[in-house]
């Protein structure tokens, strides 16, 4: 079985990131946001206690086009989890579905452009390449049985190889230190990255409650990830690329369940 390359869908990250850096850090009138407590235009920060609101109130920061990639995350364990299950098993190929379940967190209030990033372990070959083929063009987020609408459109996460090679690669640390991703060496899985760049939707509501799924195929019969192996967790990262790297992106850790 041949696995199709995904670079064509992913190389646009550099342009998207540049857009984030330019747009998220500017107010509607084009001015740069003031430091916390200052006046003028910029990111609006209502007092509702969300992660980024608290960070912008308590940290000395500035937005800059040279903010760069974060080297650590603010990792929180939540009730959300992931499940892998075979849909159709054959001697030559197995079709799988991985699902994100019970994602539920406060909707961020900071008016900015966000990169919503799902870091998801999927099968890896002995050569360090993909050992799977995605059977869908992206991961559609859902609220109940309906597609999740955010900013007036369906929110679909697309595979982003550029982020895998930059952001994710820079976060991996053997054993997984504070704010880091543990190495998956020897597990038969690798981190893949799926994302969407979105402008803040002030009308979405107080909470983001979503599920998601992806169907993929592997050669032969492959064991599902070991739910006892803590390294195989997935991470849902809510990132404002325009912020200084002193503010670690918020990441919800999701364990594997059988």
Question: Gist?
Answer:
This protein has 258 residues and is mainly β.
How would you describe this structure to a colleague?
With 258 residues, the chain is mainly beta. Helix content is 13%, strand content 38%. The protein has one domain. It contains 4 helices and 15 strands. The strands form 3 sheets. It has a 9-stranded mixed beta barrel. The protein has a two-stranded antiparallel ribbon with strand order 7-8. Strands 10-11 form a two-stranded parallel sheet. The radius of gyration is 19 Å and the shape is globular.
Q: Any low-confidence stretches, pLDDT <50, length ≥5?
A: 1-48
Q: How many alpha or pi helices?
A: 4
Q: What fraction of residues sit in β-strands? A: 35-45%
Shape by Cα distribution = globular
Helix content: 10-25%
Keywords:
258 residues; mainly beta; 9-stranded mixed β-barrel; two-stranded antiparallel sheet; 38% strand; globular
Question: Helices and strands in order, then pairings?
Answer:
Blueprint (H helix, E strand, L loop, with lengths): L6 H4 L2 H11 L27 H8 L15 E16 L3 E14 L6 E11 L9 E2 L4 E5 L2 E2 L1 E2 L2 E2 L1 E4 L1 H11 E2 L7 E2 L6 E11 L7 E13 L14 E6 L10 E7 L2
Parallel strand pairs: 1-15, 10-11
Antiparallel strand pairs: 1-2, 2-13, 3-12, 3-14, 4-13, 5-6, 5-9, 5-13, 7-8, 9-12, 14-15
